[in-house]
Specification:
The protein contains four helices and 20 strands. The chain has 239 residues and is mainly beta. The termini are far apart.
């Protein structure tokens, strides 16, 4: 275990190569972007929807985080967050990393890498020690790891989920409406999160979301297909 930590520490200078998730992979994801907008400052790690938010004071040149579910083989780089006054002056600065919740995981262990040195998270008082090496790890228990996706619920209804810019009128149309997109409008249940539940019979359906005259597929559902006129659409099967 110690050899593993040493080898990763030597690679910390490559952190920008290891992990660009916090700056790039969720660009255009309104849930992710809304978390950044709503951050208030440094606090213990907390859950926000499908994500876990880690914050830290900006008192180091480089700050990273590594997780047990990746066998500590990747160092994810924290990003800098600035608050500004109306005059444009920086009033407060801290660092953050936003993690997409790992699927079917109830607890994660992690370590912080500060300027190449491995340590625990100063904002998290929950610590465990490895029996063999005596190395301390920060621990976080995850309340809910189920991803927020379009799927059929236990009550027999299919819940459609859409993440988009807040304040929009998002509609749903598909083969179950003969592609009429003006029958069903999703409700914005939280910032940028829209949903609607429909009691669909068993079968396979194609659908898209609509905003104005623009249609787009369901980003929470990887299953796609083509309509009769050759357009791409999301696909779901109700069993």
């Amino acid at each position: 275990m110690k050899k593993l930590f040493i080898s990763i520490a030597l690679c910390f200078s490559l952190a920008s190569v290891f992990a660009k998730e916090a700056s790039t992979e969720d660009d255009g994801n309104y849930e992710y972007n809304s978390i950044i907008l709503e951050m208030k400052g440094i606090k213990a790690p907390y859950e926000s929807g499908d994500y876990i938010v880690f914050t830290a004071p900006k008192n180091s040149r480089q700050l990273g985080i590594a997780f047990d579910f990746e066998n500590y083989s990747q160092v994810h780089q924290y990003m800098v967050h600035n608050n500004y006054s109306f005059e444009g002056d920086v009033t407060d600065t801290w660092m953050f990393y936003i993690l997409k919740k790992p699927v079917k995981t109830r607890q994660i262990k992690y370590r912080i890498i500060m300027d190449g040195l491995w340590t625990t998270d100063s904002t998290n008082s929950e610590i465990v020690y490895d029996d063999a090496s005596g190395i301390p790890f920060s621990v976080l228990n995850i309340k809910n790891t189920d991803p927020v996706i379009t799927e059929t619920q236990n009550d027999g209804c299919t819940k459609f989920i859409c993440f988009a810019e807040s304040g929009k009128k998002i509609r749903l149309g598909g083969t179950f409406t003969n592609w009429d997109s003006w029958i069903y409008e999703l409700k914005e249940v939280s910032y940028g999160k829209y949903e609607i539940s429909l009691p669909l019979p068993k079968g396979t359906y194609y659908y898209n979301f609509y905003e104005g005259m623009h249609s787009f597929t369901d980003k929470t559902n990887p299953s796609k297909g083509y309509t009769a006129d050759g357009k791409i659409a999301s696909c779901i099967t109700v069993k």
